[in-house]
Amino acid sequence: MSRPLLFLDVDGPLNPYAAKPERRPAGYTTIRVPHGDGVGGLLPLSLRRGPLRVWLNPHHGRELLRLGYELCWATTWMAAANRWIAPVVGLPELPFVDFGEALFQERADGVHWKTAPLVEYAEGRPFAWVDDEQSERDASYVATHHPASRGLLHHVNPRIGLREDDFRALADFAVSLGSSPADA
Ligand SMILES: [Mg+2]
Known about the structure:
Elements: E1 5-8, E2 29-33, E3 52-56, H1 60-65, E4 70-73, H2 80-84, H3 86-89, H4 115-122, E5 127-131, H5 136-145, E6 151-155, H6 164-176
Parallel strand pairs: 1-4, 1-5, 5-6
Antiparallel strand pairs: 2-3
The protein binds magnesium ion.
């Protein structure tokens, strides 16, 4: 069987940007991405000043690859995630969701601007979406527009980033869908 998709956000899950700025979390490394270098990241380019500091954990790629999913970037970084993020966290080049016109466009109904493009990209395939910005509106949008029980919205605290219990929850969901690390 084909593996479920794992839609992966950068800022929040991989980069705990909301952690105390003076204290880099243990196990993380720092990269600085020049302003205007093809990167969305956190803020629209027009609002960014100076290089963007990003904390990344070099072990996260290995943890993500063993979960039984097909990984896909779901981030404002879009293609730039392959250039800046993937090599540091230990991931290969991944496909990414091109948000196009939807990027940063707030919706009147309060559904996150990523949600509809992700559901569309999945085309009915089961997915887990790892992000720091989903709400109940996104959960109900997915419940309405995507096959039942085949979408997991997994929230990650942007002060903390991905941890062991997150990987366990994601692995459990993959197993519940009939996928497992052994299928990878
Ligand atoms: Mg985020």
